[in-house]
Structure formats: C-alpha cells, structure tokens
Amino acid sequence: MSCNMVFALAAEKLAGNIEVPERAEYLRVIMLELNRIASHLIWFGTTSLDLGAITPFLYGFREREDILDLFEMTCGQRLTFNYIRVGGVAGDIPREFIPKCREFLGKFDAKVDDYERVLTENPIFVARNKDVGILTPEMAVAYGVSGPSLRASGVRFDLRKDDPYSIYDRFDFNIPAFHNGDCYDRYMVRIQEMRESAKIVRQAIDRIPDGEVRAKVSINFKPPAGEVYSRIENSRGEMGAYIQSIGEKKPLRVKLRGGSYNQLQVMPELVKGHKIADVVAIMASLDIIMPEVDR
C-alpha cells in the first residue's frame, strides 16, 4: 500500500490541482497503517526464526493473515494491492470491512502482549540482541538510515509527524524511540509501533466520513511538464518517489527510494567486533529487504 501511496502523492503533487476526497484520505491512512502492522509482523516472525525461535513466527503470520483478509475483501489481492490510486483509492470498502477491522483491533493489543511475553524478557533473545550491532545516532544520520532503525538510536524523526502528508496531523499517536541503538532497541521500537498503528486505525474508522473515494481523474491523465519528489514514512523508513514529466501520459523518469539500501550500507560498521552468529541478528534487526535494495 505504501508503494502505491508514495507514487500517487507524487503524481498529485505534480498535477497541482487534484483534491483527494475526505473519505479516500481516511481509507488511505487505514490501509497504510494496517500495512505497517503487517510488515512489522513479517519482520517479527522472520527475525525470531532467524534466531531460532519458531513460535513467534507462527504468531506473527497468524495476525498478518487477518490483515490480508481485510485487504483481499477490499481490493481482491493479498500481495500486489494496486488499491491507492491517483486522486484517491480504487473503490470503497465493503460493508463488512469496518466490523471485521474492529474485530481484529479488539484482539490485537492482547496478541502483542503475547509476543512480548515470548520474547521481550526471554534470556536467550536478550543475550542475542542486547548491546549487539550498536548504531550511534551520528552514524545513523551520516548513512541516511531512517525509520525504526533510526528511532532506535535516539533520533525521534518520523515523516508522519515531522513532514506530515495526507491527514496524519489529525490523529493522536506517539513516535516510539529508544537510545541504545542495538538490535534489542530496534525490536522494541517495532513492537511499540504496531500498537501505535492500531491506535491510528481505531481513530480513522471511528471518524471516517461518507462520500466519494476518488477524484475525477482522466484515464488519459497528463500532468504538466516538471519534476517532483514525494516521501512517506514506510515501515522500513523513508520511501520516496521522484517523477519527471514532459507533459505526456507516461513519465519520462521515475525513481523510487526505499529505506533498505541505506540500512545495508551501514552493516560493515555494525558487525565489527562481533561473532559470525551476530551478523544474522544485526541484519535481521535492520529489516533489510533485498528487492528494495536492488531497485
């Protein structure tokens, strides 16, 4: 959903005159925050599995399936959503979406408590992550690290608060941050972020207005010539879209920026002085997705 969103924001910014309907803005926020939770759940499960813990993997994917059910009933897909479009979203949510979403949110905080009971004070997990792969705030900023990995180093920067987009300024939520910058703090940031994302979704579904879900945008949409950069807070950090237009139906150039590339670049610094087994924990804690690096 976030990949859809950042491109749509860039195209709307380039066009200059597209007003996204209120209902669509709320739907965008709901989908983005549900997707952030789903992404963190993949991270939680696979990171635990990398370190030898099977139960958290099963727990994380169990709740992720509930979110994918919500996405599937909305846009028919469980992976390549193509839901957020220029001018709004592809279509309205079905009637059963909000009751199902409330049902999920009603149990989710207790599930996160379960995650913490399994790992947060687990002596093996703590030993594998505490004081391992310390990323100082100076190093994080120098390498352009963003997202949870940056905030775990004590830099409380989040585009939803510091460079607001869509309607994020209407919601009450906190930006979790820690100060040690180790693998354990990167875990804690993501655990708390899932709780905050659930808080945002609750507010959004309580306040969502009726109305249209997409502005009238021509199928032959041709923004004026020019260039633009738009950015959002993805689950792995800053995600940006650069579009260069020459006034035609297709852009001359598009460049997408993900957070994983910068996180990967800092790896040689973080592994110094550690054991081979620690490399697994460090790389997992940064939530590096290789196809995102490749892009």
Describe this structure in words.
It contains 13 helices and 5 strands. It is mainly alpha-helical and 295 residues long. β4 (237-245) and β5 (253-257) form a beta hairpin. Strands 3-4-5 form a 3-stranded antiparallel β-sheet.
Write the topology of this structure.
Elements: H1 2-15, H2 22-50, H3 55-75, E1 84-85, E2 88-89, H4 97-119, H5 123-129, H6 137-142, H7 148-151, H8 159-162, H9 183-207, E3 226-234, E4 237-245, E5 253-257, H10 260-265, H11 267-270, H12 276-285, H13 290-294
Antiparallel strand pairs: 1-2, 3-4, 4-5
Helix pairs in contact: 2-3, 2-9, 2-12, 3-4, 4-9
Query: Percent of residues in beta strands?
Result: 5-15%
What name is given to the CATH topology?
A: Cytochrome-c3 Hydrogenase, chain B
Spatial shape: globular
Overall mean pLDDT: 96
Please give the CATH architecture: Orthogonal Bundle
Query: In angstroms, what is the radius of gyration?
Result: 19 Å
CATH structural class: Mainly Alpha
Order of helices and strands: HHHEEHHHHHHEEEHHHH
- Name the CATH superfamily classification: Cytochrome-c3 Hydrogenase, chain B
Count of helical regions: 13
Could you write a compact summary of the structure shown?
The chain is mostly helical and 295 residues long.
